[in-house]
Amino acid sequence: MIKLRKFSNAGFDRGAPRWREALWVLVRNLFFDTPWPWPSALKVACLRWFGARVGTGVVIRSHVKVSFPWRLEIGDDAWLGEGVWILSLAPVTIGRNVCLSQRCYLCTGSHDFRRETFDLITKPIVVGESSWIAASAFVGPGVSVGAGSVVAAGSVVMEDVPPGCLVGGNPARQIKPIGPLHDARRHP
Q: pTM for the complete prediction?
């Protein structure tokens, strides 16, 4: 039975001092989580200033939320669509040429519901290069999405996705292999 009064995240390392986190929340609310279309270059500069490792050619749309940018790495030419939420309680690595579509949610944290203390659990997320996480998909703690894969819109991904495949549903299941290797076998 969960007893929320017993919950404590005192052992959680936020990765930065509270003043820096507070400053980030101000910057995020001014430049990221807003309908105003600030240029991606400005948002990338802000992320870098707060410790994120961000490649070149990255596009960041409006209403994007990143909890702790110092735990974020984004490769070249990645796109973050409107309303993307990256809960980076643990490291999040987004490869080159990755598209995170509107309102998708990368969530590195959960709770141990079997313990009355409802302990916080955090695990990193990796999205391999040339992958697409479609609109409103959820990617859970500890998940790796393989290079060249597609997560269908509205999917809930709680297990690793192999490279070069399409997954979908809740919970997400492999629908079919995709990509140049698989296409070459079908069309000699």
A: 0.93
Please report the sign of the dihedral spanned by the C-alpha atoms of residue 157, residue 163, residue 167, residue 172.
Answer: negative
User: CA-to-CA distance for 133 and 167, rounded, in angstroms?
Assistant: 10
Is 183 strand, coil or helix?
helix
Q: Which residues of the chain have pLDDT under 70?
A: 180-188
DSSP states along 1-30? ---GGG---TT---SS-HHHHHHHHHHIII
Give the type of residue at 96. R
Residue 70 burial (CB count, 10 A): 18
Q: Tokens representing 49? A: 């200033």
Is there a catalytic annotation at residue 182? no
The string of pLDDT tens digits covering residues 23-35 is 999 999 999 999 9
- Residue 172 burial class via C-beta count within 10 angstroms: exposed 0-12, middle 13-18, buried 19 and up: buried
Look at strands 172-177 and 165-169 and give their pairing.
antiparallel
